[in-house]
Amino acid sequence: MQEVLRKLEQVQEIDLQINAILAKKAEFPKRLAEYEASIKASTAKFEEKKKVVDELEKNKRQQLGALELNEERAKRSQEKSEQIKTNQEFQAIQKELESLKKNSATIQDNANKVGEELAKQQKELGAIEAVLTEAKTKLDSESNKIASESGGLENELKRLQGLRVSAADGIDKRYLAAYEKTRLNRSGLGLANATGGSCKGCNMRIPPQIYNELQRGTELFTCPSCRRILVYKDAVRTNTPEATANG
C-alpha cells in the first residue's frame, strides 16, 4: 500500500502542475477581453462621431454650394445692371444686389460656423481613432504573446500528460478512480497528509482507530470529513509537499 500511495502522490504532483497550466490557458481569453472591450467601445464612439462629422461635411458642402449659387446670381444681376436704361430699373437691380449681398454674408457666416464645428469634431474623431488604433495594436501584441505562451504551455502539457500516464501505470484502478473522484471535488487534491492525528487537507481530526490503522500503512483510508485519501508521512517517507487545500 505504501508503494500505491507513493505513486498516487506522484500522480497528484503532476496533476497539480497540469492544473496550473490549464489555469494559465483559461486566463488567455480574459487577457484579451480587456482590449476587445476597449476596441468595441472605441469603435462605437468612432462610428457615432463619424456620423456627426459626415453630417457637418454635408452641411458645409450645402452652405458652400448655396454661396456659390448666390454669388452667381449676384454676378448676373451686376451684368444686368450695366444694361439698364431707366432709374426705376436701376433702383430695382440695386435692391436685388443688396439682398444677394446680405444672403452671401449670412451664408458665409453659417459656413464659417459649420467649418469651425467640423474642425472641432474632426479633431475629436482623430483622438478616438488614435485610441482605437492603440487598442488594436495592443490586442495584436497580446494575441501574439499568448500564441507564443500557448505553444510553450501545450508542449509542457503534453510532457506532463506523458509523465502522468507513466506515474499512474500499475496503480489499481479502484484506487486511481477513488483519487480521481475526490480530486475533482476537492480543489484538485485527492490526497491529504495525515499528521498529529489530523487531516491536513481539511484540518479535521481523524478518528483514533483510523489514525492508528493508517500508521501501519497496510490499507488505504480516506478522511471522514473531506474524503481525501490519507497519507501518513512517516509510513510513506516521501518529500512530497503536504496538501494544504481547505475543505
In N-to-C order, the SSE pattern is: HHHEEHEH
Helix content: over 70%
Query: What is the spatial order of strands in the main beta sheet?
Result: 2-1-3
Tally of helical segments: 5
Determine and state the CATH class of the largest domain. Mainly Alpha
* Mean pLDDT figure: 90
Q: Major beta sheet, specifics?
A: 3 strands, mixed
| Count of discrete domains | 2
Q: pLDDT under 50 segments (min length 5)?
A: 235-247
Structural class: mainly alpha
Spatial gap, N to C terminus? 25 Å
Stated plainly, the CATH topology of the largest domain is called: Helix Hairpins
Count every beta strand, where a strand is a DSSP E run of 2 or more residues.
Answer: 3
Rounded to the nearest angstrom, the radius of gyration is 41 Å
Proportion of beta-strand residues: under 5%
The best one-word shape is rod-shaped
By CATH, the architecture of the largest domain is named: Orthogonal Bundle
Model description:
The protein has 247 residues and is mainly alpha-helical. The protein has 2 domains: 14-168, Helix Hairpins (Orthogonal Bundle); 173-236, no CATH class. It is built from 5 helices and 3 strands. The chain has a 3-stranded mixed beta sheet. Helix 1 runs antiparallel to helix 2. The longest helix has 82 residues, at 87-168. Residues 235-247 have low confidence and may be disordered.
